[in-house]
Amino acid sequence: MNSSTKSFAASNAISWKALSQKGFSAGFFHSIKELKELWDASAPKDNIFLQSTYLEILENNPPDGMSFCYLLFKKEEEIVGLAIGQIQYFNIEQSLNINESEASPCFFNTIGRYLKGLVASKAEFTTLICGNLLLTGEHGYYFKSDKVDCKLAFDLVNEGMNQAREELDGTDKKVAGFLIKDFFEGTRNEGDFQKTACNEFTIQPNMILDIPASWKTFEDYTAAMSSKYRVRTKRAFKKSVDLEKRSFDEAMIVEYSQRIFDLYQMVAENSGFNLINLNPNYLPALKRAFKDDFTLDGYFLDGQLIAFYTTIANGHETEAHFLGMQPEHNRNYQVYMNILYDIIRKGIDRKSKHIVFARTATEIKSSVGAVPHEMYCYMRHPNSFANKFMTPILDYLKPEEEAVLRNPFKDKPEAHRAEA
Q1: Using CA atoms, how far apart are residues 91 and 323, in angstroms rounded to an integer?
Q2: Burial zone of 51 (CB within 10 Å; 0-12 exposed, 13-18 middle, 19+ buried)
Q3: From residue 257, how far is each of 107, 118, 281, 311 by CA, in Å?
Q4: Nearest residue to 298 via CA among 240, 349, 364
Q5: Nearest of 251, 240, 408 to residue 339 by alpha carbon
Q6: Which of 226, 362, 372, 378 is most buried by its number of CB atoms within 10 A?
Q7: pLDDT tens, 228-241?
Q8: If you write DSSP's letter for every residue of 42-62 in order, what string do you get?
């Protein structure tokens, strides 16, 4: 049986349900393992995060409390799109880290923290997410652009999410909220989303460094800086001279897996808002599957691993993935700055067009040249009354970050990204 025959047979095995858009239907299934060939025949070749290899790794090594579902969409008899779903229980009070010891003693700040904690304590629910909580970017769904435009794509996904909720209601996973993430400015259409009763919100921008074609080496990158930032870069390197850097193969990742996980948790526990707890087996599985396209690099001090970072090559992009470090070493050795510079070096060596640094640490990422791109998310509650309160709650619980944006370059670099 050839691959096309297998795909046809797999398509016939799906229980398709007609959608309100004429000629369109959607098929729901619980595991990517059920329909790998059919899925990969429909998935974009330039986005590994929507291909079955990555999705199966995530399914086999999920964050705490996460499960999955998938949707395929067809028009007449042709598969035209797909969407991934993650089912996650959220307890906002547990996810929101309000650090009492570092907070200002100001009376109004104290009241603000109390109110935020009070609201958070009432916010817990199981959510169906179209997108990936482990990533920042448009990795939730894909449609053939010559068959489905942006507006229709969202309408189909929105209706498909309803179908998925109905399927999940027949299991032990009762969905009480929907989240569709993330959209760049150029791919959102606020008016259309409002018609679907979705609440639009942002969290923090996606920090992206565009790499001009003229940057062939890391030295080309530093040459583009103003003298002030070149001095800062040299200072960061000088501070890290006592650190030993090692690139990990799969055996080393397994050997240091507990230490890597401990360092990751040190960063996660100090973040303002943490929705997931990473599976310790996730990073070794990525290395096993993606070889040199996944990297984990460690920083050692006196023989002890004190920090690590990971990257994934994804088409024309280098994605900064998870990292970890001992916070007490950061100031003396400028560990985080060196991680950012090393990711940039890796991206240039890979001939990437963009480096995606993702959310958080907006100011320091801008100091190495990354530019903020607002990412829009859409949430709704099946209960129309509860749905009216989603936006103010989301706004109130939004992590606060007053970032001063920096520009380290003498001239603005060439831009490659097209958000349309």
Answers
A1: 24
A2: middle
A3: 43, 37, 8, 17
A4: 240
A5: 240
A6: 378
A7: 999 999 999 999 99
A8: HS-TT-GGGSHHHHHHHHHSP
Q: Fill in the amino acid letter for 227.
A: S
Q: What distances in angstroms separate CA 373 from CA 15, 56, 370, 410, one per listed residue?
A: 39, 29, 9, 21
pLDDT score for 234: 97
Structural domains in the chain, sorted by start: 3-183 (3.40.630), 207-373 (3.40.630.30)
Residues 76 and 18 sit within 8 Å (Cβ to Cβ): no
Pull the structure tokens for residue 344.
């940039």
How high is the pLDDT of residue 4? 47
Give the pLDDT confidence of 47-96 residue by residue, as tens digits: 999 999 999 999 999 998 899 999 999 999 999 999 999 998 876 555 44
- pTM here is 0.86
Tokens 């100090």 correspond to 270
pLDDT of residue 392: 62
Which residue is listed with tokens 């996606």?
Answer: 206
